[in-house]
Amino acid sequence: VNENLFSRLSTFTNPTSLELSTFEDVAEKTLTLRRKEIIRAEGASVNEVYFLTEGWVACSMNVLNGRRQIVTVSLPGELLGVPSLCLERAAVTFEALTPVVVQAISLDAFAGLFTKLPRLAFSMFLVSQQERVLLMERLASVGQTKAIQRLAAFLLHIHERLQQVDASVGQSFELPLTQSDLAEIVGLTFVHVNRSLRELDRRGLIERSGKRVTLLDFEGLRELAGLPSHQFVRDPEWLNGEAPRRQAGIRAPR
Amino acid sequence: VNENLFSRLSTFTNPTSLELSTFEDVAEKTLTLRRKEIIRAEGASVNEVYFLTEGWVACSMNVLNGRRQIVTVSLPGELLGVPSLCLERAAVTFEALTPVVVQAISLDAFAGLFTKLPRLAFSMFLVSQQERVLLMERLASVGQTKAIQRLAAFLLHIHERLQQVDASVGQSFELPLTQSDLAEIVGLTFVHVNRSLRELDRRGLIERSGKRVTLLDFEGLRELAGLPSHQFVRDPEWLNGEAPRRQAGIRAPR
DNA sequence: CGGAAATTTGAAATCGCTCAATGATAGTGG
DNA sequence: CCACTATCATTGAGCGATTTCAAATTTCCG
Predict the structure, then answer these.
(1) Tens of pLDDT along A93-113?
(2) A115, A154, B151, B209: which is deepest, by most CB within 10 A?
(3) Would strands A79-80 and A100-106 be described as parallel, antiparallel, or unpaired?
(4) For residue B223, what is the nearest residue in chain A, using CA coordinates?
(5) Are residues A144 and B239, on separate chains, in Cβ contact within 8 Å?
(6) Interchain proximity B248–A69, CB inside 8 Å
(7) In Å, what is the separation between the CA of B107 and the C1' of D9?
């Protein structure tokens, strides 16, 4: 499972061994959690970010009517809590969907990374932009498409991300989410998620047994989902263009 | 209107005059557009980012069924096109909602900024995190709340951002969006947006005349919207903690 | 002033939600 | 290993929110 833990940091550039080892060194403590345990709740003070090394995590935001939106599902190799860096109090709750292992990184250490390894910093910047694009896609899916399309879009999305962590994933994979979780992801009730999943089943697009899902017809699913496909850059040449000319550190203004 | 053009870059730290002047220098050409004109379309190759100096811009993503989602509305002082930096082809279309002026910044120049002014870079990093939080809020609103609540949430949101650009904005402001635009923002049809706006009217929460909107009852609107309120950090101490110790540039791995 | 775009309104159809009940599955303690 | 319990999945029926289609008004702009 651990085979490609840094795939996320390597999405846009190849990190040097120095970069990777420095990154590994900033971890201060390792936390192990069981399913349903909370890593950090919405509203908690922002003292650290987390590097997810094992398991799945739901990142959710509560709405006053008692409902909640799962805004992201995080997989091994991802950083948790980066968006809340700009806030006094955390915006989202991190809940373990499976047994989970995370490494806590203090804000000082994280900011230090940013200065010591500016190229890694730029990688993290690009990863954040990728997350923005993915959030936009989710918003487009939830805002503009029907139940069955939203589910198709999410299944394709999570399958693709799973493949990046573990290249051995085929068309079939374990989805450790209840139908309630799915409902909170795609903005529906769990009853309607149930009916829509069976409809995907009936149409021969997917197959389910227990928590295992098989995507039978990728083309059909993509067409149904209706979202544009996005090709991510790899080592863009402009990154190495003007970039290396000067040296500087992050420094307060006079 | 132009009074606080750099409010966005100054959200988290106070930029030095060097930082601001360097930032201003990277602009390569100035584009002036009329309402409805496209600055850059979804799918176009990613050659530049844009600094919006005047007017409102809708950032939208198309879905196959012919509908589209407006994922962001940008106001003066904001950068356009940063998320698409991680893509081969642009993810969103930028369309002028009013007469607009933008400055184009080449990717090389932008990457150069990142290296020359790492503190400004970190500011931009934090602005990106803020955008992620705002997108999550929008997703929660669209995914989990009813039509009237989504509109309340959006009106509060845009009012708050407007105030940051122009402190003189009171409870009343010009909203240069059609009801179709609003529909594409909150994930409804324009017919239902119309009915929901009149319902907000009827309840005495807002008042409309032409494009001018007055928010009559902020407390009521906030309660209705049902979203958590988020307080953004200002000059966080961890930013100056470990950060200034080293000097480095963005550099390719060996 | 004329035409196009935007807003408003009505009526019917559809989608998704709520409430309620039944079955299936997995985990727990004895 | 089994009984017990909680959680999860499934199904039905009726209701409510939102969409769709269609048409009338109003506003905006040249």
Answers:
(1) 999 999 999 999 999 999 998
(2) B151
(3) unpaired
(4) A64
(5) no
(6) no
(7) 51
